[in-house]
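Late entry, evening session. Most of the bench is empty. Finally got around to the prediction I had been postponing all week. Sequence below, unchanged from the version circulated by S.P.
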Amino acid sequence: MQTLPVTLLDVQSARAKIAGAVENTPCLHSKTLSRIFECDVWLKFENLQFTASFKERGALNKLLSLTDEEKARGVIAMSAGNHAQGVAYHAGRLKIPATIVMPAYTPFVKVRNTEGHGAKVVLFGSTLAEASVHARELAAKQRFVFVHPYDDAYIVAGQGTVALEMLEVAPALDALIIPVGGGGLIAGCAVAAKGIKPSIEIYGVESKTFPAMAQRLRGEAVHVGTETIAEGLAVRDTGEIPLAIARALVHDVLLVDESTIEEAIALLIEIEKTVTEGAGATGIAALLQHKEKFKGKTVGVVLCGGNIDTRILASILMRGLVREGRLVRVRVSVPDVAGSLAKLTKVVGDAGGNIVDLEHQRLFGVFSVKSTEIELTLETRDRAHVALVIKELETHGFSAHLLGATE
């Protein structure tokens, strides 16, 4: 049998060491999501950690492994955000000096929170790989201990404690769906879950923009994009330790669209009343896009983080309303005579539509000097309600056209 770089005993040891300093987050059954996806869905709310991410687990396990001399020298880490906060928070608790190198694109909320834990933040490079190179240069120059976000046995073992807790609450799990960035979480959870229940299936999930783990498992050259809403998964260089474990224990790595991740974020807010970042919602995105794979099974989904920029969150929620037909734009041609606007708004109101915005156009693109175009932004119940509103407008003599995204 193949010897793996991390064992179940390592994960169990990590759990004993970090107990009390890291939350044993809720693992709850979702009746509504189970009905939607036709399988029993259990959610692990790692977004409820103090730093709103599972990354605390591995970070603390690594810090506790250091000698007194290493702690005195201080630590350095590179991260797009959540590993940074985990290292910064627990280094602060343990009185260990910490420096964090973050890519320049890192959301402001993650930079601010990392600094708030007492760490020194250095913004460098446009990718995690560039930040990593700079962090290693600083580590060599300043003699800092480098705390890798995923390619480290202590980190992997710490992350695996997530699966230990899930199987204690839900021992009937048939499958786990784990977000994949560098691979530390899926590797640790695979070791723990397979060690306890060999029959369980481990699925990774990546954005189609950053499919590094899927490509490496298939023996393909790694080609990734430049940006993703799941910035926590924006990793080109999968860890060698996680990759070795994934080759042995992971059933498959599923890919999801960016739009599906957005939909998953909105779904979790609407149904579970919980906020996740892009990476944290990819497990639900996998159920949305690969529903048939999990039908009838008992599935555990790790909501791995909740650090999302509020501006991005607001945009996602509004785009979700547009996608569902609950926020639409309608262009209406009306006679340019007194009372036309009042009549138009009354028809919309009587049909149950709520006018959010109204733009009056008399000059550009208008068919006749005796007519005018009015563009309405409407709140509606759903697409069927949109059709009803347009039908009512046409019944009352208005020419109405539902505008697409590019119009």
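Two things to note before I forget:
The mean pLDDT is 92.
The chain has three domains: 8-53+157-319, 55-153, 326-402.
Will write this up properly tomorrow.
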